[in-house]
């Protein structure tokens, strides 16, 4: 069953991108300015593209009969089959909260995709080569805002700091090793999440320092289990909204 | 060498395929963009046809689907069977955009991607990238929004002629 680890590893990457894209889509018409509606929509669009490629690849490796394609995997799996971290499924908070989440997540994705450039799964390496440039742009965008808000007014500074505190319990899961990643890393296909943590922390830490913000204290609890299909309560609601159309009208096209 | 009728047909179809317009920026073709990596003769379902290899620009670019459809339609118009293959590696870069494509973009009012350095003296500053206004040619421009109307564009404004314009992002 070694191939199942390969599938689960790809699903983890694809589901992170897909679910965060769904959350970012929720910002449209709610961002503080129209440029930011466009920006968050565009970031989500890049992530949807990555998710499509990653889920397609997961379906190929799984080689079920019949093969599950990107739509089957995105729309017809239940909550316990999703392999994303809990960070990305959390509901949208205020704008500073979102920038805190985007900074952590894009910094993680930058290190991740850079490490996957040499993946023994050539399709995964090719997806990473395309995605790495996109997520660098996302990280840069989040950085600009964290600097602006952190080094802004007392109010913006305070709310940016609160955003960082709010997402902090969900950050550790990005660097948590799991069976599929251990297998993938042994095979030269994937990367062990814990090996990225130092670089991600350094990259975020640098931004926080320039923004006159402080890295929050270690949280008293932290989220875990997403890679094994354990999600927070909000995940069911998110999937109900995301999958409703595809499930109510199977095979619908327009 | 004498060309058979079939050769001319294939060449006409290839020309039509390379001439498919970008659905978002109709002044340039997908060939100008560098999206078409290869057009070769191939057996398509037992009939002589063309295999077209394309490389997507952005992972989530919604125009890719339209480009692929455009290729199929162009081939169909010429009665040539076509096989469209997507190749991810090497990843697409704006360096693949043709000189002609860049000129067309500029004329259309979009600043082309700037791998290139400025051609004359520029103000000394921290910003290394010079984006020239497609309207008046001034180098004195600023970024308004990093994400524009499509995945591939950012929004800028010229400090000299005061016109806003799209910039094709360099990746």
From TrEMBL, chain A:
Transmembrane segments: none annotated. InterPro entries: Aromatic_CoA_ox/epox (IPR052703), Ferritin-like (IPR012347), Ferritin-like_SF (IPR009078), PaaA_PaaC (IPR007814), PaaC (IPR011882). GO terms for cellular component: cytosol. GO terms for biological process: phenylacetate catabolic process. This is Phenylacetate-CoA oxygenase, PaaI subunit. It comes from Serinicoccus hydrothermalis.
TrEMBL record, chain B:
It holds the Pfam family Zn_ribbon_PaaD. Residues 11-76 form the MIP18 family-like domain. InterPro entries: Fe-S_Maturation_MIP18, FSCA_dom_sf, MIP18-like, PaaD-like, Zn_ribbon_PaaD. SUPFAM superfamilies: Fe-S cluster assembly (FSCA) domain-like (SSF117916). Gene3D superfamilies: Fe-S cluster assembly (FSCA). It comes from the Bacteria. Residues 127-169 form the PaaD zinc beta ribbon domain. This is Phenylacetate-CoA oxygenase, PaaJ subunit. It comes from Serinicoccus hydrothermalis.
């Amino acid at each position: 069953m070694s191939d199942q680890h390969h599938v689960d590893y790809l699903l983890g990457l694809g589901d992170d991108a897909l679910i965060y894209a769904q959350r970012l889509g929720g910002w449209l018409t709610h961002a503080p300015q129209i440029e930011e509606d466009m920006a968050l929509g565009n970031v989500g669009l890049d992530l949807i593209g990555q998710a499509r490629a990653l889920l397609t690849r997961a379906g190929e490796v799984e080689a079920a009969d019949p093969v599950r394609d990107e739509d089957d995997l995105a729309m017809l799996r239940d909550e316990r089959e999703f392999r994303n971290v809990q960070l990305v499924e959390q509901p949208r908070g205020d704008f500073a909260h979102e920038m805190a989440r985007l900074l952590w997540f894009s910094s993680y994705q930058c290190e991740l995709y850079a490490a996957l450039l040499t993946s023994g799964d050539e399709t995964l390496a090719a997806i990473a080569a395309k995605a790495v440039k996109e997520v660098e742009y996302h990280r840069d965008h989040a950085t600009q805002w964290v600097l602006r808000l952190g080094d802004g007014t007392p109010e913006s500074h305070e709310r940016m700091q609160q955003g960082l505190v709010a997402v902090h319990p969900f950050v550790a899961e990005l660097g948590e090793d799991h069976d599929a990643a251990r297998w993938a890393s042994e095979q030269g296909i994937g990367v062990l999440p814990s090996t990225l943590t130092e670089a991600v922390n350094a990259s975020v830490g640098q931004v926080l320092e320039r923004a006159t913000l402080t890295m929050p204290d270690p949280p008293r609890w932290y989220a875990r289990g997403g890679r094994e299909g354990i999600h927070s309560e909000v995940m069911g609601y998110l999937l109900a909204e995301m999958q409703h159309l595809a499930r109510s009208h199977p095979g619908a096209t327009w | 060498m004498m060309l058979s009728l079939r050769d001319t047909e294939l060449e006409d179809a290839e020309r039509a395929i390379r001439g498919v317009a970008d659905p978002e920026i109709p002044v340039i073709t997908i060939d100008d963009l560098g999206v078409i990596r290869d057009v070769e003769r191939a057996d398509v379902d037992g009939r002589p046809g063309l295999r077209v290899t394309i490389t997507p620009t952005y992972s989530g670019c919604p125009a890719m689907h339209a480009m692929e459809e455009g290729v199929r339609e162009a081939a169909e118009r010429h009665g040539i069977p076509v096989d469209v293959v997507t190749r991810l590696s090497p990843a697409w870069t704006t360096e693949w955009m043709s000189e002609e494509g860049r000129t067309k973009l500029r004329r259309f009012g979009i600043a082309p991607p700037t791998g290139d350095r400025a051609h004359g003296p520029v103000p000394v500053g921290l910003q290394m990238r010079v984006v020239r206004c497609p309207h008046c040619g001034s180098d004195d421009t600023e970024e308004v929004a990093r994400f524009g109307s499509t995945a591939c564009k950012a929004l800028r404004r010229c400090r000299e002629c005061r016109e806003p314009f799209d910039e094709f992002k360099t990746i």
